[in-house]
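Check this.
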Amino acid sequence: MKALVLAAGYGERLRPLTETTPKPLLEVGGRPLIQYPLAMLRTAGIRDVAINLHHLGARLQQALGDGGALGLAITYAPEPILAGTGGPLLGLRDYFANDPFFIINGDTIIDLDLNQVVEQHRARRALATMVLRASTDPDGYSRIEADASGRIGRMRLLRRRGEYDDFAPSTPAAALAPYMFCGVMLCDPRILTMLPDAAPFSLVREVLAPAVADGAMVQGFIHQGFFRTVDDLASYAALRAEFGAAPPELQHVRGL
């Protein structure tokens, strides 16, 4: 199994820091942000990782090298023009071939056992399994709604704060609970046959949300443990302070 770690964005809400340092290399807890998802992948036995590059991509490539120091084999996927969250897959079809693969945001710290996600994904024979959690800011994020079994029956994708585009079957399940997406998903290789012809595009908005509306099996894995993401300067400062005062015990960074 392989993975794609998304690391190409500008990190605009973290300026001026990201004018000289790519967001995934910003330090938290004595290591760059991107090292957390990479360590999580390694802990799950996933060694082959692709990383997309655009803004200050050479800095990222210089910092991580071939991945050997982290126990990984890194393949870089440069983007002359930003390709969105789904666009990198167009050039990685042969890399992922016929096996399921993870897509993980490079700015997310989550204490998650990826093997449990794999187990549920296979048991449900899902097109994709999205890691979800309860939202503390329902109006600030897209709402991914799932039934008691975790099957996603509706996506309300954020257009602007408090305004959404709805994707659901014509007769959606009656009992759905809202969650937010944690930036980790496992995709069946069937996804690679469903991509738009050209980038940029969002994998969730342009592939998975229409699939949910068509009744496809898109699964949610509900996570209740540690989760942090860096959205802006305030959240970055808060996260650094949290790690400085009481570093969380994260299973995948022990011994690093």
